[in-house]
């Protein structure tokens, strides 16, 4: 503010209009974090994030007597990036803590108001650490808001963090979004969205066990949490998905975004000394999506975590694969399409694969999927991935309107058909032979709509399989069966029978033999191979009835076509990789879209 001295006529700048709170740095150094102190920002330094963590800003703040280093909470990064906080500007610290970081006291700024643009440096401040070492403190005035200070801009992070309570009780909780490693005491109220199985480890440094959870709150915050050793014994059985808990006394560290799908800068670690209690008040979790069009995945880096929303085009059968550790894990592939006219295959694992219930044509919002480059571009879910079926959100309504208008007839898959991913092209049975499908180095994948006219069911409609590996067992006599895959022997009651059938299909263009394996066989016959084998042994008329009932019904078959040579004879083998009953509503929509496309040419 400029004024004129009436006696001299000289203009001077009145610095009193920009007062700082004298003694504020000394008080915070001594753990008095009373809010409202105004300080000057002497320096701003950007600290690059490592391992996928978010960048941070380190400030040097002064009260005119002393200066001290301060860290800006990451939710306040925008005030620096948008030049609201500048070097030599004044800020009012509305929420702070002071912690020891690498044996130095650091101010952590959790909330602030911008008071002014840059002004001249106020006073001749000294380093607070040096002053403390030499006992050169002056008497600090009691904390008070300075006079004649009117904030220029008020800034509050989104979502606004609740005040940090140094002695927080169950009633004083903070949002997940406000958590950072520099807070000593906090309590969150969160719901468990996902909870993993207990895993164990053993290495040169010892052994232990852990499990992971995804925590979400009613303000859209989410964080990954891992519980170790004593915490596993203490809390695993108590914690349930969908329940709300009060959680405190955990450790926070920067999240490695390569392995963490949560939209949070930090991840949490709990142990036996952490506090977890059931909250009597359930919360309604708010999920914050960051959707991208499926087409954009084509240019998205591998290992990125993304959210998408689309129509469920195909649902594959559940299969079981062996992991490197020798375990068996369930796997299922699904395909989503959206209004970017692109499709992509998503691989589900474990319980998500086994318990998938959404039918083709449903709207699915998926959160926390990892981008891969298998057969082009594909996505993979994890235990922390979240799937909502038919959500009432704006993006879902947009995609649904597109699908109702077009039927999704013109989509192109980002996952190459060579690996069985994405919607395969629709063909007739005659086109399979006319176009020499399966003659190339790699198999061809197609989709056909056809009727079943016959299923061969002599002694070769099943094979005897190992109950652990699903591999074929060799008969040893005396009702014993041996599995060469795991070198174990089983009795006739222990082995399982799995389908391997030849199926004759017909459409308007011709006829084709298909090979159906266990999952497809159970879909067609509505019985397991073990059940039909027992009916066959007992000469139950339902055995023949099951095969008769399966005939003359129309299905959509997804086929893997490849020329194979057996006993010096080469023939085309079409294996069923997926089978679903015809949805005549979807079929009509697709046909109408194809007609409209042809008429527009």
Structural account:
With 601 residues, the chain is mostly beta strands. The strands form 6 sheets. Strands 10, 11, 12, 13, 14, 15, 16 and 17 form an 8-stranded mixed sheet that branches. A hairpin with a 2-residue loop joins strand 11 (199-203) and strand 12 (206-216). Helix 9 (529-537) crosses helix 10. The longest helix has 16 residues, at 584-599. It is elongated, with a radius of gyration of 33 Å.
Q: What distinguishing features does this structure have?
A:
disordered N terminus; eight-stranded mixed beta sheet; mainly beta; elongated; six-stranded antiparallel beta sheet; 601 residues
Q: Given the helix and strand composition, which structural class is it? A: mainly beta
Silhouette? elongated
Poorly predicted parts? 1-16, 138-151, 156-170
| Distance from first to last alpha carbon | 72 Å
Mean pLDDT over all positions = 82
Please report the total strand number as a whole number.
Answer: 34
Q: What about the largest sheet?
A: 8 strands, mixed
Helicity, in percent?
A: 10-25%
Tally of separate helices? 11
User: How much strand content do the residues show?
Assistant: 35-45%
Return Rg in Å.
Answer: 33 Å
